[in-house]
Amino acid sequence: MMLLNQRPEHDQPLVAADAAALGIAGADHAEHYLKVRDSHAETPLQALPALAGELGVGSLHVKDEGKRLGLGSFKALGGAYVVMRLVLEEAGKRLGRTVDVGEIGDPAVRAIAAQMTFCCATDGNHGRSVAQGASLVGARSVVYVHSGVSRERVAAIARYGAEMVRVEGGYDHSVREAARVAAERGWTVVSDTSWPGYERIPGLVMQGYTVIVREVLTRLHEPPTHVFLQAGVGGFAAAIAGHLAIVLGAERPKVVVVEPARAACIYATAEAGRPVKIPHEQPTVMAMLECHEPSLVAWRVLARVGDAFMTVDEEDAVAVMNRLARPAGNDPAIVSGESGGAGLAGLIRAAGDMGTRAALGLGASSRVLIINSEGATDPGRYSELVSIAPQDVLLQTA
User: Fold this and answer.
1) What does the buried/exposed string (b/e) look like for 345-363 if buried means 16 or more CB atoms within 10 Å of the residue's CB?
2) What would the pLDDT profile of 378-395 be if each residue is shown by its tens digit?
3) Average pLDDT of 87-95?
4) Is-contact 246 223, C-beta < 8 A?
5) Confidence of residue 1 (pLDDT cuts 50, 70, 90)
């Protein structure tokens, strides 16, 4: 399914708060924090000319976030950044001066961090980022996971010292439970989704993601004409689309938001013209995108700079994982987790339908950007779906 954005706010400027969070100064701030990380390195931008030719587009580039900060996901840029920033803000209040990120290891700062507890709900990747951020600054973290989060993903979070709490139901249930307990105990919720009265922290999480755009634009000779962005609650898609709109202005690319058909809360919201919660029915293999209620901040951005909304099926996601692991021609092999290639799945589906191609303006001169949002964050599940271990896929490009 594909739906063009016909909202009255479409193509209007971002509201002031969102423009501030996702603008150039915000990206500068996020990058400043990133540079103090020992594991910081720019992630690869790969050209896939063989696949571009098959799809009838001029060029196709994939930004591979599977190598980001040792966490295997773009989420590494969000939760950890916010935890570090909130600790330094609290330290500044208590010490009566500005505290820079370079002082993150200072004993006085760490003593303050040790008194702080950060809490979140996660499908897997965001919780790992929050837990890693807390471990970096010496704070405590408590991470809520729902019944669908695999043991392997839970273990990957727990190794950063997080206290893990399992919640019955889906992602939205874990979000509500984390917020409830945090309010009772005075913890700080670091969520990648927003609700009425809770917007600043999700905005900062999104701000962290803008670093991806900055890296991409320094590597491309020409900006993309089309970007296909996967969405769960919508924060990732909104951050990328919002920053592109601010930096490129009228030359911004056409943004297509892609979701699993089984968890398409952004599509349903676009269709209804207002944020809606959809029923939790069948689980999707795209576990990191299994969200049933949009982030209010994310929707506010996407209503303005999202040009189309579409869904993909389970087999589309698995086919992309396999296609990237076994590329054609001289295209590089890429390890993409179950959710990581959903944007590419959307492009493949759009390129194969003449009506959709025409509606989106896809053609031989199109320059398409895809972001592989995660690698094999659950290696066992990856091997099951692709029939190759992720490390063996990477040997093909070594």
Assistant:
1) bbbbbbbeeeebbeebebe
2) 999 999 999 999 999 988
3) 97
4) no
5) confident
How would you class 8 by CB atoms within 10 Å of its CB: exposed for 0-12, middle for 13-18, buried for 19 or more? exposed
Active site residue ranges: 75, 123
Label residue 84 by pLDDT band (50, 70, 90). Answer: very high
- HSE-CB of 191 using CA atoms within 13 angstroms: 30
Domain boundaries defined on the chain: 2-73+201-395, 79-191
Task: State the average pLDDT over residues 162-191.
Answer: 94
Model pLDDT for residues 114-137, shown as the tens digit of each residue: 999 999 999 888 999 999 999 999
Whether pLDDT at 396 is above 80: no
Q: Do domains 2-73+201-395 and 79-191 have the same CATH topology?
A: yes
* Average pLDDT over every residue of 83-98: 97
Structure tokens at 19: 């423009």
Residue 86 has pLDDT above 60, yes or no: yes
The CATH label, of 3.40.50.1100, 3.20.170.30, 3.20.20.140, 1.10.10.10, for the domain at 79-191 is 3.40.50.1100
DSSP 51-80: HHHHHT-SEEEEEEGGGGGGTTBGGGGTHH
pLDDT higher than 70, residue 398: no
Burial class of residue 148, CB neighbours in 10 A (0-12, 13-18, 19+): middle
Angle between helices 379-386 and 314-325 (to 10 degrees): 90
Residues 6+ apart with CB under 8 A from 249: none
The residue type of 294 is P
| Architecture category of domain 2-73+201-395 in CATH | 3-Layer(aba) Sandwich (3.40)
Beta-ladder partners of 252:
none
Return the residue matching tokens 């996020």: 30
Position 327 pLDDT exceeds 80: yes
Amino acid residing at 138:
G
Q: How far is CA 218 from CA 39, 121, 211, 247, 310, in A?
A: 21, 34, 11, 12, 29
Cβ atoms 45, 53 nearer than 8 A: no
Confidence at residue 397, expressed as pLDDT on a 0 to 100 scale: 62
